[in-house]
Amino acid sequence: MSTTVSALPHQNEIECDRGLHALLSAMEVDSSLFLPDRLHERLVALDDLDAGFGGFNQNNIMDSTNSQLHQRVMALRTRLETANRELSSVITLNPAIRYQFKTGQRDWPKT
After folding, report:
1. Per-residue pLDDT of the chain (111 residues; tens, 9 = 90+)
2. DSSP string covering 4-16, please?
3. 30 secondary structure, DSSP code
4. 82 with 34: CB under 8 angstroms?
């Protein structure tokens, strides 16, 4: 029995990698994710990014392919989190909007 680890990826790893790239590419072009009323979708997208790409370590990032992928993931996370912060600041700073959320009179703030 050999203890040598194969350098070639298994087929299911290749398929998973393709799926993660497709997920990232789809999120990058979906400008509707950044609309104020898409908070839930942004939170799901952030969870999906964490689930799919949360395992980066420093050794993987040094690989140029993974480095580029990591940069794309981090840029998208930053954009999603910025959209969430902007929405949060509108809700927090405007008592009338906060009241409308609490009473269900308004689904999302218009900025």
Report:
1. 444 444 444 444 445 578 888 999 999 999 999 998 888 899 999 999 988 887 555 554 555 556 788 888 999 999 999 999 988 877 776 777 667 766 766 555 454
2. PPPSSPPHHHHHH
3. -
4. no
- Exposure string for 86-102, b = 16+ CB within 10 A, e = fewer: ebeebbeeeeebeebee
Q: Nearest CA to 86 among 29, 42, 23, 30?
A: 42
- Claim: this prediction has a pTM higher than 0.70: no
69-79 burial by CB neighbour count: b if 16+ within 10 A, else e? beebbeebbeb
